[in-house]
Write a structure and sequence with these properties.
With about 400 residues, this protein is an alpha/beta fold. It contains 16 helices and 16 strands. The chain folds into two domains: about 250 residues, Alpha-Beta Barrel (TIM Barrel), CATH 3.20.20; about 60 residues, no CATH class.
């Protein structure tokens, strides 16, 4: 239980953090049975209308930047790489006309490794995308079929080669483990293949069964805890020996190649959000933290009048700020500087002192007066650790 106070005496005032931009493209070729994202199957994409709507949405969001430049852009989905090279180029040009991008802005595009999308990689790079995130998930054809993926191993390998040929020197691969029917050898073989391909970043995470998915309605047989434990421990050794460092629950990178956009989330940064179902967070000049979400259904989003794209919004109650901060920051293996808590929330450090002490006593948080971070045990029980900071 948290000892934060729901009063109005937030002090010192929260410092407005660095700013990012998230863009959601909600369409895909086929909905995967494990996916609970806001994604929708559609053959003909209304890309011109959607880009126009995205930019109209950004017109309304730009004021929230408050003069801050945008340091990272993430185009996620769905499958944004289904859009044409012209649509992505027009989108990025429109963004530059509405907000200031830093000279070294990280601009990520999510892509699936189908051959049609891979053919566009060079054009995406020329348009300004400088980081590509490929949804590989597995290099095993049988596993890919069980996951409902529309690509195979050969297409995955070809897409990675195409990304390199297109000039991408900042490449992330999404790879899952704990797949239906997967044993230890198969899981490690997938990881070994990924490591051998030398991506700058790996998002290596366990498949989980989420509500409102096909897998939730018809659960597959997944590996047991013993296999999962061996896979994660042995996989970590192989990643570390190959020069990758784990910096977040499921994120591994080469030195200097951490995802700057995701680090913004995990350090409680601000992010504007445009697109159907996109979620944003903005800190006002008064220190209030506002979370909001755009209309979820693509048709409703496309039909909204300018200014009417937002479906819900709320200011975070001071009683929830500590939990919201820890929900993100404690995903980082190294944690965050303790001073970052007051900067990001406007709450005094005393608001979390007794909760931190209690968790330190249980061996879940590190006994470090300068940083907030979990122990290995705390990272394994992260939900319990974070829950302690939320008010009842």
């Amino acid at each position: 239980m948290s000892n934060t106070s729901p009063g109005d005496d937030q002090q010192p005032a929260a410092v407005r953090p660095p700013l990012s931009l998230y863009i959601h493209v909600p369409w895909c070729v086929r909905k995967c049975p494990y996916c609970d994202f806001n994604s929708h199957e559609r053959e003909q994409l209304p890309e011109d209308a959607y880009v126009t709507t995205l930019l109209a949405d950004l017109d309304g969001e730009a004021a929230a930047a408050g003069g801050r430049p945008v340091e990272t852009v993430f185009i996620g989905g769905g499958t944004p790489s289904l859009f044409s090279r012209e649509a992505i180029a027009r989108l990025l040009q429109g963004i530059r006309e509405r907000v200031v991008l830093t000279a070294d802005a990280e601009i990520t595009l999510e892509a699936n490794p189908g051959s049609a999308e891979a053919a566009k990689f060079a054009a995406f790079r020329a348009a300004g995308v400088n980081r590509l995130s490929l949804g590989i998930q597995s290099f095993d054809d049988d596993a890919l079929a069980r996951l409902g993926r529309v690509h195979d191993r050969a297409q995955a390998l070809a897409a990675i080669a195409a990304a390199r040929e297109a000039g991408f020197d900042n490449l992330n691969l999404d790879l899952m483990h704990g797949l239906p029917g997967q044993d230890l050898a198969a899981g490690l073989a997938d990881l070994d293949t990924a490591i051998a391909l030398g991506p700058e970043h790996l998002s290596w995470y366990q498949l989980t069964i989420e509500p409102n998915t096909v897998f939730h309605r018809r659960p597959p047989v997944l590996p047991g805890e013993a296999i999962l434990g061996d896979l994660e421990s042995e996989g970590a050794k192989r990643l570390e020996s190959a020069g990758y460092g784990r910096y977040e629950v499921s994120a591994w990178s080469r030195p200097g190649r951490r995802s700057r956009h995701n680090l913004g989330y995990w350090t409680f940064g601000d992010y504007l959000a445009i697109g159907a179902g996109a979620h944003g967070k903005v800190t006002g000049v008064d220190g209030r933290v506002r979370r909001y979400a755009k209309r979820r259904q693509p048709e409703a989003y496309l039909e909204a009048l300018p200014g009417g794209f937002t479906a819900s919004e709320r200011d975070l109650d001071p009683a929830d700020l500590a939990g919201e901060f820890m929900l993100n920051a404690l995903r980082l293996v190294e944690g965050v500087p303790r001073a970052r808590f007051a900067e990001a929330t406007g709450l005094d450090d005393v608001a979390i002192a007794s909760t931190v002490d209690a968790l330190v006593g249980k061996g879940l948080l590190r006994n470090d007066p300068a940083r907030l971070g979990t122990t290995p045990l705390g990272l394994a029980f992260l939900d319990d650790v974070v829950g302690a900071f939320f008010a009842d």
